[in-house]
Amino acid sequence: MNRAVPDCLVYGYQDLIPCLQLPDENDRHVLAAAIVSASDAIVTFNLKDFPKPTLENYQLELIHPDDFIFHQFGIDDASVLASVQRCRERLKNPTKTAAEYLDTLEKQGLPKTVAHLRAYAAVI
What we know:
- The chain is mostly helical.
- The chain is built from six helices and two strands; from the N terminus they run H-E-H-E-H-H-H-H.
- The chain has two domains: 50 residues, no CATH class; 53 residues, no CATH class.
- It is elongated, with a radius of gyration of 17 Å.
């Protein structure tokens, strides 16, 4: 991941973990890293364990991955499509056709993203 996203790692958040309150204490490291890195949002399928009032205290938004990816489409469609294509091409055991890959993404909780991607299946 470090090669794909330079400066993606967050350091120096560990001391903050004990001070944070979340429904699942095992998620506190995520919030601590977001605070220390001055992130704008936490992108997760695990919405229930990051209460909005808690995140608002740190000016953080909670975003479902389907919403996050879907909103990348108006920003840079070509980059989104290239990323999806690269992810599918990395699947080796087993390989997946574009249609199979989109079906998998939909089953994993990305219906809005997949609905938009289906029009581009020929290039994915």
